[in-house]
Amino acid sequence: MAARDYILGRIRWSLGRSSFEREEESLLNARMSEPKANLIPKRAQLDHKAQVSLFVKMAKEVNATVSRLKSVDNIPRAVAKYLKDHELENTVRLAEHEALQGLDWSKLDASFGVSYGDDLSSVVMAYAGAAETGSLALLSGAQNPTTLNFLPDNHIVVIRAEDIVGDYETVYARLRRESKEKDFMPRTLTWVSGPSRTADIEQTLLLGAHGPRNLHILVVDEDHGEEG
């Protein structure tokens, strides 16, 4: 018996239920196979160009910084510029994503792999972005270690403009579709909206309380010029 089946069986036993009723099981299967979308904010129902602009605007409102690039080849230069502008070391830990591995990182002290807590800056690839809140969807896996999203102080995230959509539900629908095609679901999907923050103590906003102090987003759009 799989651990999952054992745990669910114990839960059913504690509730005094030996198994699902046929009608309940049918309803659950239908919900899983054809999930219904939640409410979708009207502000994100725009054409794609406007969605990208909204994403940038909303990301900046939650204390992220954003640069737009016209080519993936410009990513290392943009990372180097960010580190220099903020007087940071030029050492950076990179996710082992194919889009990053093929670039020229020779101007930086760059290495690939997971972080063990001693990296100040990291670069990862986003799976998608939701314009409604300027949030990034990050998937766990060998190509994007989750440690790079939480341990370094400076979190640099690359996202292709084509992966920016209006709302969360569109991202979930894409993930379900692709996971079904590949017969594989990532262990973790992390939503990131700006740097880590808390206002638990005297309602004073503190950045970097539970993760990165800074979030810099590089939006790669072949049809858009570069800007800081």
TrEMBL record:
Residue ranges crossing the lipid bilayer per the database entry: none
Source taxon at top rank: Bacteria
Every LUD domain range: 128-220
Pfam family, one: LUD_dom
InterPro entries: FTHF_cligase-like_sf (IPR024185), LUD_dom (IPR003741), NagB/RpiA_transferase-like (IPR037171)
Annotated protein name in UniProt: LUD domain-containing protein
Organism: Candidatus Terasakiella magnetica
